[in-house]
Amino acid sequence: MSWKGFTSAAAMAVFACGSAAYASQADQVENLGGSSQLVNPVYLDDATTMAATAPTTDAAPASAPSETTLTPIMYLLDPTAFGQWLEKYKFSVTGFVEGGYFIDTNNPRLGTGLHGDSPTLVTFAGPYSNRFLLDQADMTFSKGIDSTKSWDWGFLVEGGYGTDDAYIHSHGILDNRPPNNPQNQLDLVQANVSLLVPLGTGLTINAGKFVGFLGEEVINPTGNLFFTHSYSFFYGVAATDTGVEFSYTFPKLINGNDWTASAGVTRGWNQSTWDNNGAIDFLGEVKGNLTSALNLVLNLQEGPEAALDNSDYWTTFEAIPTYTISPSLTVSSDLLYSDFPHGASGGTQAAQWYGAALYSNYKFNGMFAFNVRGEWYRDQGGFSTGTQANYYEATVGLQIHPLPNDNIFQYLQFRPEIRFDDSDRRVFNVSSTPEYSELTAAVDVIMQF
Description:
This protein has one domain (about 5-449): Beta Barrel (Porin). Helix content is about 10%, strand content about 45%. It has 5 helices and 16 strands. A hairpin with a 5-residue loop joins strand 4 (about 185-195) and strand 5 (about 205-210). It starts with a helix and ends with a strand.
């Protein structure tokens, strides 16, 4: 398939899904953060903080809501005095387990290692094709901030174990082993404290290790539409940052809608207790609703990120518009640009990577949703992926909640998908016969608790 044919097919699939949306009149549910993107997307700075409330959602249809919005651990603790104390002071214990199976149809034998016969460039199923995987087992202990108070504090500690966690280590925390050796690894995903200061409507200060601002997709699988990830997520942005950031909400700023501005400094992309250079970087974000249906997020990260290099400032800019066409259909886009001076051709040229991903999510009911993703990613200079090439992918999949009204198993979901990748270079299955394209199929199971 040519790239023109691919992009045309992806666009037709998205807009065909859009035209069908007006037939449904399901009630829209407010986005709570740390949950599914099914109605409104969850952004990277929100997603891994899994609140003790239900996901946005697809978890229970408005016509027949579940009796509880508490996640299973908090639901089981709720009748006890300890559970009531946790809820009163905004403490929560949450988690999830994700397992999946990833099939490389170009080479359907059992994967044997980093290159072996495993799929190339498709990550977060990892290089372990054609076998069952423990992708992530995750636990979070947190205290939320009570915004009704003048002063308040909170914290979040999140740990994970699995195949995915081998790829998100920050520099200095459990990163002494190369990826895939062993296959499943532990990681301290987040550890931070927050303080609400009575300035204006309330200034929030967050310090420590936290998931990065940038990205429409997130580490936590409950915040994504698909099992596999976009190129922009894995190759184009930082997974985590360590530093301090300040957030302030301006009430009714545009068309009566609140807007939140965040800014801070960090040690750099995926740096934590160690730093690969002596410099800090800037991280900024503004987000809010332009209209009742159109949401916009603008992200910027600026600073020297390369090892032992304090002078070449990377610039990464991202725009994420999201439009709610109907109560059942949401479309969004992730527009990314990044520049690394002297990052290509032995330091004589700039390396740049940029791309556009388009998402469509159509919710049939509380049990089924249909998702489409089309993406173009350009690695100019070959820094981010290792090969200067144009990459294209189209993914279609379902989100299935088999028991959307059950107090516990409303949090169980299955996500089957089919994905086609294409490139103008032979970058796929490089260990056998390099190919221009790749067809994969996958399914994962997620249970939140």
